[in-house]
Amino acid sequence: MNIRSELHKAPLFKNLELLANQIVEGFISGIHKSPFHGFSAEFAEHKIYNPGESTKHLDWKLFARTDRLYTKRYEDETNLRCHMILDNSASMYYPEVKNPSIDNLNKIGFGVLSIAALMQILKKQRDAVGLSIYSDTYNFYANEKSSERHFQMLYSKLNEVSVTKEKSEITKTYTFLHQIAEKMHRRSLIFLFSDMFQTEIEEEKLFEALRHIKYNKHAVVLFHLLDQEHEMNFNFENTPKRFVDVETGTHIDLYAENIKKRYTQEVENYTNALRLKCAQYKIKYVGVDVRSNVSQVLNTFMVERQKFV
Length: 309
Description:
Elements: H1 3-9, H2 16-27, E1 37-48, H3 60-66, E2 70-75, E3 81-87, H4 107-124, E4 128-134, E5 138-145, H5 148-163, H6 173-183, E6 189-194, H7 203-213, E7 219-226, H8 228-232, E8 240-244, E9 251-255, H9 256-280, E10 284-289, H10 295-308
Helix pairs in contact: 2-4, 4-5, 6-7
InterPro entries: DUF58, vWFA_dom_sf
Protein name: DUF58 domain-containing protein
Domain DUF58: 47-268
């Protein structure tokens, strides 16, 4: 039996961690341990003590046996601090997907799977991961840790998100980005997964929130998740259709072709403004089509991690 093939066909979120691991293994073979050393993880080796160094990590038991001073050297368990931010507002559940699979994802599914895959890489690297989830409220926050128990808790939360659709009516992304920024005290690599849609179009407030989250020398990457076919290109059959706002429930009946040109221009203008502001604030902007695979996210991570460390 081809395990990878079976996983791809299986209900996605029943096998989230396993599938994420398969994706990572398929993406990159072998992630080397960090050459950096600190004193926060497992014991690695001894080195001879040099006068003037801190005596905090002297191995006194070894001194009793050898009458020589050695210090313990450890592999740094938290070489990198990484915080994932997931937009869980109602618009992230577009397009409607009854049986999500790796080849059939909506925005929230793509975000969940991407974060799960990134967590697998970070776990292998012994890095610390935190997670924030917001919709119409700041639903969940976990600071950066690297323990197995912590990772399992995050996977459990991601599983919960993937099967529970939010019914939020008002999403003020900028409000929660400000709150998250206030919690980030130590320099971190921050990934934001969002469609950046909100019911109240207040672009300047949103841009200020992005600027705030970049504060304190954080490195920030925005993965702008959209269904390219429909949300960007507005490709629908030219028959009478009812378009429903997934956040407010309001609707409008029209022919898609009648507004396609105006719609695509407005979306392009907004996306360009967002991209320019990200460049201004030195935030990495990555436009992502949720119909594609997560390799674009993983590639971006590998590049940004090297820059960060």
